[in-house]
Amino acid sequence: MAIDREKATLALDGPVSRVRLVSPARARALEKLGVRTVRDLVTHFPRSYIDLSQVETCATARIGEMCTIRGTVHEIKLKKPRYNLKLVEIALVDETGILMVTAFRQPWLMDQIKAGDGVAVSGKVTFDYGYKRMTNPFIEVIGEGEGPALAGSVVPVHPATEKLTAAWVRRIVANGLEEVEGAFDPLPLGLRLRYRLMSRSAALRAIHFPTTMAEAAEARRRLVYEELLYLELFLMQEGAERAAGAAPCEHVTDGERVGAFAGALPFALTGEQERARDDILEAMAAPAVMNHMLLGDVGTGKTVVAGFALAAAADSGCQALLLAPTEVLARQHAEGLGSLLEAAGVRSALLTGSTAAAERAQITEAFAAGDIDVLIGTHALLSDDVRPVRLSLAIIDEQQRFGVDQRAKLLAKGEAPDALYLTATPIPRTLALALYGNLTLSYIKHRPHDAVPRITRVLPKERQGEAFDGARAALARGEQVYVVCPLVGKGAEERDAKAAGRAGAADAAGEEYHPAVAIEDADDFDDDVTAATKEAEILRSTTFADYTVELLHGGMGTEAKRAVMERFRTGEAQVLVATTVIEVGVDVPNATVMIVQDADRFGLAQLHQLRGRVGRGTKAAEVYLVSASHREESLARLAAMETTDDGFELAAFDLSLRREGDILGNRQHGASGLKLVNIMRDGAVIEAAHGDAQALLDVDPLLQEPDHRAMAREVRLAFAGEGIVGG
Ligand code: ADP
Ligand code: MG
């Protein structure tokens, strides 16, 4: 038995190709999903489940509600209602009747499903043209031979690709689980007993192949706790390591450059900004390592506060790094902040993924020689050729976009650098403490121009003219306008539904908690670009014919994007039609009107980020959220945007609306070791894990006791980027 346990434990770190059914081609497809090892495979968690115990029949399925129907494919057809639109239509029958299923932009379903197959579909039921219908439901072929893999009446739906269907992933995962069955459980028994947690083997099996939804939830509970415990252990150990040994820099905070930076600002700081600046400078002056987070809604002016910290680093004869999540944002910091820094005698430079090789070499050399004080950039800063001589400060802007491992990598470039995190994500204090180790915090609650009103209005599509009137009035005053087009494919789907003559099916498409396969898998990106491109064309020749309209989208090259932003910034272009590439950080104070098309396709947090792009100057701003949706839930969400301008309030509202549909939570967090955790929802577990990690390290700081060694290894694997996993 002991031998088996060891074998299973070792198997976790073996290549996925050793698992039955994983051919070289499938291994390549799995790699696309981030799966390289057996461990990756068994932690490739389902993104949803189809609960067959809640199955309705065609007759009992209620119109307007979500349900699962199991039946046999009577007929499957590929249709092309329009030149660039393909849809698959399936007639599904059970003993009570017929359900028509329409799947947009998943033509490959034709290869995967054939008449006579047994399938389960899960989605919202509508009624049109005499039939009950589902548009873009989850579709799963449930083969006869699948037997043992499906333990009960719950079918897991794993993230899949076009090359590797969810059904195949399911089979492969089942085989992977066999390899590691009985593997050693790294979680100490005491903790497992205290919280009544399943063993790891059992939890892995149950989260992939639960017999009931309750069992899946229990499995998730165990695995989430484990992820969080390792995270806490990692943060605490990292913090201790960073504090030990090297002496942190005691920064000079009232030096020449700090003074000059203050003098270079074109405005006076608000009281809150001053307080935040003082908090930060005080922590930098102290002989301990700073770990500070500056929280403030979009547009509250965090950047200039960070500027003071950069100037202080330079005054102290040290260097600093400023990491931003996107090229646009990094460039903007390099221009805006960079020129203020320059005026203060601080030498800064920009490094991004698109910096030409020769220039890059020049910059990294100058930085390594100490001829540059502040290096501003994107992920490029993490690369090994960025070698500061004496790094005393690392700032991470929009830190929620980065993983724990990336943060660690940045900080590792210095001996004991101070760290400053800027974030617009409203996290409660206790969570911030748990998630970022021992942290000091400053909040900026008000935007500098609180006197400047920003009004948000929700308009039904047929009244979008009012939005354009508002925009034209602003243009006439010499101000500028953003027009934002919907997120990847979702909006297009609604239009497609209409184009296909299924008005009314529209609202059933694209439930955000129930994403259709197409959204993830198809090349919807192009449709997104098309939507923005078309909108720009139309506006250019009609509404805004007398102005210069520019287009910005993620598919454009860096240089083209930069040029467009530059023309908009200088006012050469007055209207910017964009996809969500402008979501983060773009700063053009003269832009006062934003029109968001198909606003119901965006999340509240995203809409709030977006509208943060206007109202940044001294002039009143207007935001128009245009939507063709008639769904009550969508309209209630949008109405919240009208009622409050406060990001924290919106976040709370957003949470209260989320249905419990996805028990797996979201997985947007950058940290590779967190696959299941939902930072907002798992607050209580985060706090428990925080306490437990502290207690463990109190008795065994290096996790060297026999009972803890396996756990120490897991921590490194999950977060420190060691071993084959991660990256
Ligand atoms: P965020 O907190 O979202 O990063 P920014 O730092 O980009 O916000 O600042 C938003 C805008 O407000 C910028 O145009 C900035 O120059 C301006 N700003 C910042 N502080 C002040 C201030 N005290 N008075 C006037 N404008 C300010
Ligand atoms: Mg910012």
UniProtKB/TrEMBL annotation:
<dbReference type="InterPro" id="IPR045562">
    <property type="entry name" value="RecG_dom3_C"/>
</dbReference>
<dbReference type="GO" id="GO:0016787">
    <property type="term" value="F:hydrolase activity"/>
</dbReference>
<dbReference type="InterPro" id="IPR001650">
    <property type="entry name" value="Helicase_C-like"/>
</dbReference>
<keyword id="KW-0238">DNA-binding</keyword>
<keyword id="KW-0234">DNA repair</keyword>
<dbReference type="InterPro" id="IPR033454">
    <property type="entry name" value="RecG_wedge"/>
</dbReference>
<dbReference type="InterPro" id="IPR011545">
    <property type="entry name" value="DEAD/DEAH_box_helicase_dom"/>
</dbReference>
<feature type="domain" description="Helicase ATP-binding">
    <location>
        <begin position="283"/>
        <end position="444"/>
    </location>
</feature>
<dbReference type="Pfam" id="PF00271">
    <property type="entry name" value="Helicase_C"/>
</dbReference>
<dbReference type="InterPro" id="IPR014001">
    <property type="entry name" value="Helicase_ATP-bd"/>
</dbReference>
<keyword id="KW-0227">DNA damage</keyword>
<dbReference type="GO" id="GO:0006281">
    <property type="term" value="P:DNA repair"/>
</dbReference>
<keyword id="KW-0378">Hydrolase</keyword>
<keyword id="KW-0347">Helicase</keyword>
<dbReference type="InterPro" id="IPR027417">
    <property type="entry name" value="P-loop_NTPase"/>
</dbReference>
<dbReference type="GO" id="GO:0003678">
    <property type="term" value="F:DNA helicase activity"/>
</dbReference>
<dbReference type="Pfam" id="PF17191">
    <property type="entry name" value="RecG_wedge"/>
</dbReference>
<keyword id="KW-0067">ATP-binding</keyword>
<dbReference type="InterPro" id="IPR047112">
    <property type="entry name" value="RecG/Mfd"/>
</dbReference>
<dbReference type="Pfam" id="PF00270">
    <property type="entry name" value="DEAD"/>
</dbReference>
<dbReference type="GO" id="GO:0003677">
    <property type="term" value="F:DNA binding"/>
</dbReference>
<dbReference type="Pfam" id="PF19833">
    <property type="entry name" value="RecG_dom3_C"/>
</dbReference>
<feature type="domain" description="Helicase C-terminal">
    <location>
        <begin position="505"/>
        <end position="661"/>
    </location>
</feature>
<protein>
    <recommendedName>
        <fullName>Probable DNA 3'-5' helicase RecG</fullName>
    </recommendedName>
</protein>
<dbReference type="GO" id="GO:0005524">
    <property type="term" value="F:ATP binding"/>
</dbReference>
<dbReference type="InterPro" id="IPR012340">
    <property type="entry name" value="NA-bd_OB-fold"/>
</dbReference>
<keyword id="KW-0547">Nucleotide-binding</keyword>
